[in-house]
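ESCALATION

Customer reports they have been waiting on this structure for their group meeting. Please prioritize. Original submission:
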Amino acid sequence: MKRQGIQYFTAEEKKKLLTYLTYNYNAKRSAFLYRLMFATGLRLHEVSNLNVGNVDGKETLVVLGKGSKIREIPLSTAIQKEIKEFLLWKLDEGESVASDAPLFVSRKNRRFGPRGIQHDLDKWVKLAGLEGKYSPHALRHTVGVELMRKTNNIRQVQEFLGHSFVTTTQIYTHVTKEELRNCAELLNI
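Update from on-call: job pushed to the front of the queue and completed.
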């Protein structure tokens, strides 16, 4: 949904999408793709350009980001475990797990490109029963919103997302109506 100018998944929407993908046998690649994006805040072109060697056995993901800047993203232990499981699945499916092989490939055995990812997300969002249209960038926005709510530290979120300017990160600092209600309750009269 679009909230206060940015499109992101609420916690319930995110859970609904990931749960649907987890229990759908035909969605193994998509389930891992979107879990990885939710765990790292990767941009669409960053995730599309990943090779197996970028993630295999790594604790930190190094990507060439926007503006040709190198960005380092720490990988949680949970996503590291999922990377191992996904690579085993790729091997079982007969896909290459060579270091220079694309991490995500289409049914035609080609690198899964940005348009393919957008089409794939559209399909799974609809099948999961979510209303509205979500771009892959909404996953990155979801990461920004979640991190701001959990850390309340704009500098940490800025660094994690690789923003050059803190003003870019400020879009994640919006206040919800519930938070405003809590503010009102803090005031003594």
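Sent to customer with the following note: The CA atoms of residues 107 and 116 lie 10 Å apart.
Escalation resolved.
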